[in-house]
């Protein structure tokens, strides 16, 4: 269980499900709020319209009993009219209980419902201009054709809204009430409470909520399933790569490669990078194997020769070749030193940060050489570089040794500055290096056929060491034909920055 939960596929599925769940919860909450607000605003608008219509009737002088109130069952609206004394003077028929308005009374017949000047008849009044001039003292009858001017009606600017409930024929329903007030002549302040039912709002919200409670879990199940399948398909190449890498590790066969999917995504790039790493590792291991084999072969010859001479000298002291034994010992010492330097270079040894004059280094090293076959001509100009003095001296020595073995009459060493680089050049007048062999000679333990024929030929490590040192100093080592027709090796290093 822990393994599956810790897999990328499980984590991706869980993450996608949580994100979708949060999004659905936020969206569902927003939809419900918007729906509730919209339907409530509709109910408020309906209640306000009803209250305005009743206020208009009252302003025109309609008696309380003659008000045209909406039918509760057909229109789902209730009306309650309250005078300035707080008495209910008109209400919708069928009301049994009401809350959320100014009075809990459901009709003009409850409490003090008589209107002043109305003869005590509940819920009814006559227009204030009726019967007032029947006994006109003038007796001229002209007033019958003249409409009396009414005082202006003062209406409230904005309605007030409240929530409540009303019970009609035993059914209680929530309502949205709008309150409008008007100052009527001879009646004083009258307040009208008109309510629109919220049953549609409650029903719609309940329906949507139920749909969400049912649909959201199903949608989350679908999202989880789809994400699980999609990630499984997307990660299948990764699992193939893992299995192949596991098999390569178990078999130690670096010639094998992981499968590369036919896509152009990150997994394909991962597979190609893995194969490139395996190729580099295979080359490194093969190079190490060749190095060990060649080193063993090169060490075997001087050791065997030295042993033979010592055994002969032990049995017949007069036959001991001391000079040969010393030469083999020196050769063995040089080979061991070269192998140790290569090992340090392969381990990533960095060159030192010493600032030195390449010309002075060459002049000092050349002055200490003894036993060279051919003279060495010098052309040394000042050129400062930064690096390891010991390693650069080894490069110079290896290049001069190589030139001495192949030169016919002489060797030339020069130091100068060219194109912003310090250049150390070592040339000879020998047979030169064939163009097709100019890269191969820098490989370890590689010697051309003519060098193998020489008794004093090296082990084939000098040029390899020289190039490795050059690369680690940020430079290059190349070979081309010299002016004398032989080989010209050029070591190019970055100039030291001006202090």
List keywords for this structure.
alpha+beta, Heat Shock Protein 90, 46% helix
What does this structure look like?
About 45% of the residues lie in helices and about 20% in strands. With about 500 residues, the chain is an alpha+beta fold. The chain folds into three domains: about 210 residues, no CATH class; about 70 residues, Orthogonal Bundle (Helix Hairpins); about 140 residues, Histidine kinase-like ATPase, C-terminal domain (Heat Shock Protein 90, 2-Layer Sandwich), CATH 3.30.565.10. The longest helix is centred in the middle third of the chain and has 53 residues. The protein is rod-shaped, with a radius of gyration of 55 Å. The protein starts with a helix and ends in a 5-residue tail after the last strand.
């Amino acid at each position: 269980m822990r393994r599956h939960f810790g897999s990328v596929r499980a984590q991706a599925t869980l993450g996608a499900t949580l994100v979708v769940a949060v999004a659905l919860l936020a969206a569902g909450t927003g939809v419900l709020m918007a729906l509730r607000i919209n339907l409530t605003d509709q109910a408020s608008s309906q209640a306000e319209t009803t209250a305005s219509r009743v206020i208009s009737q009252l302003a025109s002088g309609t008696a309380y009993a003659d008000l045209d109130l909406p039918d509760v069952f057909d229109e789902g609206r209730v009306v309650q009219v309250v005078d300035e004394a707080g008495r209910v003077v008109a209400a919708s028929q069928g009301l049994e209980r009401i809350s959320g308005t100014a009075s809990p009374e459901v009709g003009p017949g409850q409490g003090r419902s008589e209107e002043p000047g109305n003869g005590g008849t509940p819920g009814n009044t006559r227009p204030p201009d009726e019967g007032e001039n029947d006994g006109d003292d003038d007796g001229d009858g002209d007033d019958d054709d003249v409409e009396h001017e009414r005082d202006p009606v003062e209406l409230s600017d904005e309605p007030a809204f409240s929530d409540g409930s009303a019970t009609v024929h035993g059914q209680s329903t929530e309502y949205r009430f709008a309150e409008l007030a008007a100052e009527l002549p001879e009646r004083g302040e009258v307040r009208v409470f008109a309510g629109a039912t919220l049953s549609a709002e409650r029903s719609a919200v309940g329906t949507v909520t139920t749909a969400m409670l049912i649909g959201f879990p199903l949608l989350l199940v679908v999202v989880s399933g789809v994400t699980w399948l999609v990630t499984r398909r997307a990660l299948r190449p990764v699992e193939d790569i893992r299995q192949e890498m596991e098999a390569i590790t178990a078999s130690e066969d670096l010639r094998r490669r992981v499968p590369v999917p036919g896509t152009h995504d990150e997994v394909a790039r991962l597979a190609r990078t893995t194969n490139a790493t395996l190729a580099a590792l295979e080359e490194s291991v093969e190079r190490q194997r060749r190095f060990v084999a060649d080193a063993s072969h090169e060490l075997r010859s001087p050791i065997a020769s030295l042993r033979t001479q010592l055994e002969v000298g032990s049995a017949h002291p007069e036959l001991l070749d001391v000079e040969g034994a010393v030469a083999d010992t020196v050769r063995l010492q040089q080979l061991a030193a070269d192998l140790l330097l290569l090992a340090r270079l392969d381990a990533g040894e960095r060159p030192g940060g010493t600032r030195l004059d390449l010309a002075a280094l060459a002049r000092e090293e050349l002055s200490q050489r003894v036993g060279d076959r051919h003279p060495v001509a010098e052309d040394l100009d000042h050129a400062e570089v930064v690096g390891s003095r010991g390693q650069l001296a080894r490069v110079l020595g290896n290049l001069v040794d190589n030139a001495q073995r192949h030169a016919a009459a002489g060797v030339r060493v020069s130091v100068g500055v060219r194109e912003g680089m310090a250049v150390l050049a070592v040339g000879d007048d020998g047979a030169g290096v064939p163009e097709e062999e100019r890269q191969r000679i820098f490989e370890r333990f590689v010697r051309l056929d003519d060098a193998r024929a020489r008794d004093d030929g090296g082990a084939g490590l000098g040029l390899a060491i020289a190039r490795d040192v050059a690369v680690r100093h940020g430079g290059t080592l190349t070979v081309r034909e010299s002016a004398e027709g032989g080989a010209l090796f050029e070591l190019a290093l970055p100039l030291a920055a001006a202090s």
